[in-house]
Amino acid sequence: MDYLDYVNEDQRVPPARHVLADKSDPFQHFDDISFRDRFRMYKKDAMEIISQLNLKLLSVTQRGRPLPVCLQVLMTLRFLACGTFHRETGDLFGVSEPTVCKVIHRVCRAICELRGQYIHFPDATIQVNYKVSFCEYGHFPGVIGCIDGTHVPIKCPSTPDAEEYRNRKNWFSINVQGVCTPQLQCSNIVARWKGATHDSRIFLNSSLYAQFERGEHNGILLGDSGYAQKNFLFTPYLHPTTAEQWRYNQAHMRTRALVERMFGIWKSRFQCLRKTLRFKPRRCCIVIIATAVLHNYLKQRGCPDPPVEEDDNPVAPPFTTDAREGLAYRDAFFVKHNAMALLFLRSEQIGLKPF
Predict the structure, then answer these.
(1) What is the pLDDT of residues 298-335, one digit of tens each?
(2) Would you say 35 and 46 are in contact if contact means Cβ atoms under 8 Å apart?
(3) d(C-alpha 129, C-alpha 199), whole Å
(4) Where does the DDE Tnp4 domain lie (predicted)?
C-alpha cells in the first residue's frame, strides 16, 4: 500500500496556492462594503472625489517622491472617518506621522475648494420645493431651512484667548452653525467661532442673516429658543398657554428636529467630529468644512446614512431677548397660517404620532 501511495502521489491535484492580497491598495484589498465601512463611501464615490481633487493635489515635479493622489485622499478619508492619531494612520499606510499631518491638511484644503459646488443656499425655485417638503414633514408652512449650532471638540489652544474656546459644558470646542435642507444636506455652514460664542451671535454676524435682512430670500428659518424671534426666523413659544400655541410648538419641534438629525448623521459618518481635533483652531475649521462638503457629496450620490449616535450637545438654554416686533411677527404668522393647526390636528386623527 505504501508503494501504491508513492506511485499515485504524482497524479494528485496540488492544492490551490494562497495568494496574499496587496494591502497597500485598499481598492483591491477590500470589497465594496468593507471599503465603505472604513472610508465612509463606496469605491465608485471615492474614485469620483479623487478625480475631482486630482489636479489640485497632483505634484508638479517628482522631487521627494510625492505620494500618489489616490493614497493622499484615502489617508485623509480614513482619518476623517475614524479620528485616529496620525501615528496609527501612518502605520496603516506606511508613511511617517509628519507626512500624515501634511497630507490631511492639504487634502482638506482642496476639499474646501469644492464648497461652492456642494454647499449653497437654495435659490427661489428650489425654495418653493423646500417649502412643500418641510410642510409635508412637519406641517409648518413657509420653511426653507432649519438652523442650529453644534460643538466640535478641539484641544486647548496654546494662545492667550484659549478660555474663549471653553463652551458651556466646560470643554474646548468650535461652535458650528448649520442650516439643513429637507434632504438632510447642509445648505449653509459657519465654522470659525469659539466655543463660548452664543448661537444667536453667530447668526447675527453671518452673511446669511444679512441676506435675509435685505429680503433676498422668500421664506423662513426655524430655530430653537437660543435665537431671537425675527420676521424670518421663528422660535417656539417658551410658555404656551393655548391649544393653538401648543400645536404651533409641536409642528415647530417636529420640523426643526431635522437639523439635529443632520448633525447626528454628519458626526456619525465622520467620527473625527466627535473626538478631539488636535490641531490649531484655524486648521480645525478647515477639517470641519471639509467633512460638511463630503457629507453633502455623499448625500447627493445616494450613499446610505450610518447609524446615528446620540449627540453629546445639550439643548441650548432659553434666550429671552425677543423684541416685541419679533413676537408680533410670530403671532401674525400663526393667525395667517391657521390652517397649519388644522393640518396637524388632522394628522393626529389619521393616526400620526405627536411628539
Answers:
(1) 999 999 999 887 655 545 545 545 555 666 656 666 55
(2) yes
(3) 27
(4) 147-296
